[in-house]
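Exercise 7. Given the encoded structure of a 160-residue chain, write a plausible sequence.
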């Protein structure tokens, strides 16, 4: 089950298993063992899970849910910490933004940005900033709409 999950995650990123392994410091000999049915050691499983932002249980076929709440919280914290350490952004603000984003959106964003952040790609940071700005604007529009709706209700109470 591990090999199927691993190759599926690799194909979703349009990457070969050996390339993924090399990026996270795992030998191609280990990849060959996995292909033959071996299960990675706990250290390798942790690296793979972090790389793909999935739980170890998902990698091992114990669940269909790619990421559980605990793993999600850890991932958001790690991602925010990495951004904070590299770019001196306000960690609490980043963490709040990431936690408010729909998981699917953040996963898409992280898939494209994490490799760039690790190599200090300013274009990626600009994308993140723009996305965060858009998210903040959308949130403000929602708040304004809610306030307007509440005021309308106060001004025009429903008649019975």
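Solution.
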């Amino acid at each position: 089950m591990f090999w199927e999950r691993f190759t599926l995650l690799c194909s979703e990123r349009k990457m070969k298993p050996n390339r993924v392994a090399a990026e996270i410091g795992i030998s191609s000999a280990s990849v060959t063992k996995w292909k033959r049915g071996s299960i990675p050691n706990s250290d390798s499983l942790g690296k793979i899970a972090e790389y793909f932002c999935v739980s170890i249980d998902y990698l091992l076929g114990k669940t269909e849910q790619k990421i559980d709440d605990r793993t999600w919280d850890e991932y958001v914290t790690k991602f925010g910490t990495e951004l904070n350490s590299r770019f001196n952004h306000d960690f609490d603000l980043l963490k709040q933004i990431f936690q408010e984003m729909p998981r699917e959106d953040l996963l898409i964003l992280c898939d494209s940005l994490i490799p760039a952040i690790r190599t200090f790609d300013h274009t990626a940071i600009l994308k993140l900033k723009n996305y965060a700005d858009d998210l903040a604007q959308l949130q403000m529009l929602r708040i304004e709409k809610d306030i307007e709706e509440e005021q309308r209700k106060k001004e025009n109470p429903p008649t019975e």
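Remark. The CA atoms of residues 51 and 85 lie 18 Å apart. Students should compare their own answers with the one above.
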